[in-house]
């Protein structure tokens, strides 16, 4: 726990959730982040209304770019499920956003979610509309479910059985 792959490039990752359910970032980490070049992940985004209604079935992380067939590290458009290459290859995901206004995409290289309108990463484990597709992409890429933030595996049945026997 605590060393999940998608957080590897976010040293000092530390969310503080306030009573309104919004996450803020500790000042020290914001400073560190500015220096090391990473940006904070937003916990809300106003551009999720165009998300695909079926994000339970998505292309595998090994799908090549639909335009230039670049083989890896592509982006999945979460609005139409097109797989397109990054701005460091042939910018096909960026062009897709400019042409279609589909702004939310998931990176198959590190499973981060980017909104082109917010120009920010979105925290897919906090935003409800993104949680399941992030989890599915994680399973497709790593073959196992991502580490959960709230553990919900009740393992009390055995203890209860013992109690009943003893009394
Ligand atoms: Zn947005
Ligand atoms: Zn491409
Ligand atoms: Zn799209």
How is this structure best described in words?
By secondary structure, the protein is α+β, with helices and mostly antiparallel strands. It has a domain at about 40-150: Zinc/RING finger domain, C3HC4 (zinc finger) (Herpes Virus-1). Helix content is about 25%, strand content about 15%. It contains 4 helices and 8 strands; from the N terminus they run E-E-H-E-E-E-H-E-E-E-H-H. The protein has helices spanning about 25-35, 90-100, 130-140, 155-165, and strands at about 15, 25, 40, 75, 85, 105, 115, 120. The strands form 2 sheets. The chain has a 6-stranded mixed β-sheet. It has a two-stranded antiparallel sheet with strand order 1-2. The N and C termini lie far apart (about 40 Å). Residues about 1-20 and about 25-35 have low confidence and may be disordered. It binds zinc ion (3 copies). One zinc ion binds near residues 65, 68, 70 and 84.
Per CATH, the class of the domain at 41-148 reads: Alpha Beta
Into which percent range does the helicity of residues fall?
25-40%
Structural class assignment = alpha+beta
* CATH architecture annotation name of the domain at 41-148: 2-Layer Sandwich
Distinct ligands? zinc ion
Share of residues in strands: 5-15%
The name of the CATH topology of the domain at 41-148 is: Herpes Virus-1
Average pLDDT score: 80
Radius of gyration: 19 Å
The low-pLDDT segments are: 1-22, 24-36
- Main beta sheet strand tally, sense and closure: 6 strands, mixed
List the quaternary state of the chains: single chain
Q: What is the first-to-last residue Cα distance?
A: 38 Å
The total of helices stands at 4
Query: What gross morphology would you assign?
Result: globular
Beta-strand segment tally: 8
H and E order: EEHEEEHEEEHH
């Amino acid at each position: 726990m605590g060393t999940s792959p998608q957080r590897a490039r976010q040293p000092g990752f530390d969310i503080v959730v306030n009573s309104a359910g919004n996450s803020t970032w500790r000042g020290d980490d914001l400073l560190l982040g500015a220096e090391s070049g990473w940006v904070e992940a937003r916990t809300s985004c106003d551009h999720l209304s165009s998300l695909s209604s079926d994000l339970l079935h998505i292309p595998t992380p090994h799908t090549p770019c639909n335009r230039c067939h670049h083989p890896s590290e592509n982006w999945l458009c979460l609005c139409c499920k097109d797989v397109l290459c990054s701005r460091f290859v042939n910018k096909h995901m960026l062009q897709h956003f400019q042409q279609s206004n589909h702004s939310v995409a998931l990176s198959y290289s590190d499973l981060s979610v980017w909104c082109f309108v917010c120009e920010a990463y979105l925290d897919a484990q906090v935003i409800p509309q993104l949680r399941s597709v992030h989890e599915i992409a994680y399973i497709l890429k790593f073959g196992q479910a991502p580490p959960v933030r709230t553990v919900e595996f009740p393992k009390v049945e055995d203890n209860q059985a013992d109690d009943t026997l003893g009394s």
